[in-house]
Known about the structure:
- This protein is α/β, with parallel strands linked by helices and 302 residues long.
- It is built from eleven helices and ten strands.
Amino acid sequence: MKIVAEEHWVKKGPVKLYVYRKHNIEGPAKKPVLFLVHGSTFSTRGTYDVMVDGKGDHSAMEHFARLGYDVWTMDHEGYGFSDRTDSSSGIMVGVADLQAAMPLVLEKSGQKAVLMFGESSGAIKAGAYANAEPDKIERLMLHALTWTGKDAPEMERRRRMADQLMASPRRPFGKAQIDNVFNRDKAGTTDPAVIKVISEFEMKFGDSVPAGTYVDMALHMPMVDPTKLTCPVSVTRPDHDGNSTDEELYEFFAKLGTREKQFVMMRGLPHGGGMVGHQRHRMWYMMHAFFGAPAAPVAEHH
Length: 302
């Protein structure tokens, strides 16, 4: 097995976007594509490809490449290696980013559709993208989703600071914001050494990140129409998650336009850091169980 990393670039008008891939070049030429969508604070490699010496496997991309997936992701506009612009890079900007990247992904992989996973605001982007281009999504997993944000403590906090969030297209980013991601809902669920590696990587990109997803999550929900999601869908709900409530997600789940769906409650898991924390292997197991499931047989017509 030989896992290789590839860096690609696509253009969205004048904006240059970074697209990243990991796959086993000794495996079958055509593999199922798993596309991972990052959230509001960290770039894609600080979320899904964290490499920590002596601390075991913390890279979801490496893990799924070894399971036989062709794993792709991207930095959204204003994040990581992608162009920094005057845009606040809200949810629909992220959808446009995915639309710009998908032709490259499908061409290189030889596939016609992808398995898509998004967490936090990345789940909202993934759902909104599936609304816009349903034929490109084979299966969809929405982790730590906010649908309406009604009565959710973190969304209430953001609504109170909406004027401040809208005053600039970018919000401050540093140690305080990083610690908040990992400790806001439940502290101690991620190894401090891992947080340190992520911090060092992410802070190379500067002292601010786009504010648009925070504004959208505070003021513009809902942005995903569950009735128009007709592919198989998994909604995974962390035990400790102030970004949403059980009630709003139960309603979202009930409205899904598919009969192949699942709702997973994950005991002990916080909103932030699920892919790199102490429970990451449980998270990855849930993902593989869903994405690796055999397709339902095509119904016979009589």
